[in-house]
Design brief:
Helices cover 25% and strands 25% of the residues. It is built from 6 helices and 14 strands. Strands 2, 3, 7, 8, 11, 12, 13 and 14 form an 8-stranded mixed sheet that branches. The chain has a 4-stranded mixed sheet with strand order 1-5-4-6, with no helix packed on it. The relative contact order is 0.21.
């Protein structure tokens, strides 16, 4: 059953930040494209203020978050009509498991019947095809007045991609990139492994690397090619943009198997945790534990980096607001 949004609210959960340093496992380099050369192409005299509702450690039902966005968009449009100042807003959160479709999404990309869906399904007004949201995935919903930045939808999409690309590079030494003709952020592990080990292009076995002492430093399955780590879908009305980006951090990726994510059949979906775990030293980090405190730490670190890079790319100063004022 396809659902619509409901109007209800939840309380803020104050996050507990871990102070233990996180060490990236490996510098994973994609050769899909040259290094990001994104430029804002906008001159800012000073950073603008952006109200921020930060629930990054909270699981928020999709319908609630969608309602918040539409309410904020309505308020911003009213301000513009009265020729009043209209600043930007950012909502950060996680969702309970849910599938969302864009305004023109085809149900042929669902590997299940709507009436027997494993999770709630929402058809929204954003662009793009079906995707999955769930715990371990950080979502940023910027409600942006593009009049304050650049009235160019392509620029805005590239700016959202740039936020994620910078996070992966600066925080995890993962060099991600864009793929021509597609929206989102990708990492090409297969090509990295093939180049590093000088393997043929059709190689699909498991690889490992030992140093002269016999210590196993690297192991991985190079069948992972062009993994999409971040999905982006937006709606723009009267130059107010909303919806936004979803970055897989510690996400359980199995629900993606029940759909064709973003309508792209020949690409895989990945996560930061998956990449770091796939190319790690088992002697140093030990076996993976999906419920370990490292998962929470990884969410904390990624969240902090997302906030930092979003503020830098869009030249915004974030001001935290309680969700109760929505």
């Amino acid at each position: 059953m396809i659902l619509s949004a409901t109007h209800s609210f939840c309380s803020i959960l104050t996050p507990n930040h871990s102070t233990r340093p996180y060490t990236p496992h490996l510098n994973v380099v994609s050769k899909l494209s040259q290094a990001s050369q994104f430029s804002t192409s906008v001159t800012y005299k000073e950073k603008r203020l952006c109200e921020c509702f930060d629930l990054y450690n909270e699981l928020v039902p999709y319908g609630e978050a969608w309602s918040w966005q539409k309410s904020i968009v309505k308020e911003k449009k009213a301000l513009i009509q009265r020729n009043q100042s209209c600043s930007d807003t950012l909502i950060i959160l996680q969702h309970h498991p849910v599938y969302t479709l864009g305004t023109g999404s085809s149900e042929e990309y669902l590997n299940f019947e709507i009436i027997d869906a494993p999770y709630d399904v929402y058809r929204t007004e954003r662009g793009g095809e079906v995707t999955y949201h769930g715990p371990g995935q950080l979502l940023m919903y910027p409600i942006i007045n593009l009049r304050n930045h650049k009235m160019d939808l392509h620029w805005y999409l590239r700016a959202l991609e740039e936020v994620v690309i910078r996070v992966l590079s600066s925080t995890f030494s993962i060099k991600a990139s864009r793929l021509e003709g597609l929206t989102g952020v990708w990492v090409g592990l297969n090509k990295f492994v093939r180049d590093f080990f000088q393997l043929p292009g059709t190689f699909e076995g498991k690889v490992s690397y030992k140093d002269v002492t016999g210590t196993l430093w690297l192991q991985g399955q190079p069948s992972l090619w062009d993994q999409k780590l971040a999905a982006i879908g937006i709606r723009v009305s009267q130059w107010i943009a909303y919806h936004g980006l979803a970055l897989n951090v510690t996400t359980d990726l199995s629900p993606f198997q029940l759909i064709v994510p973003c309508g792209i059949r020949n690409r895989k979906v990945g996560s930061i945790k998956g990449i770091l775990g796939e190319f790690s030293s088992p002697n140093r980090y030990g076996p993976s534990d999906n419920n370990s405190t490292d998962d929470f730490q990884l969410i904390d670190i990624t969240h902090k980096a997302l906030v930092r890079e979003f503020s830098e790319v869009f030249q915004l100063e974030l001001a935290l607001n309680p969700i109760s004022i929505l």
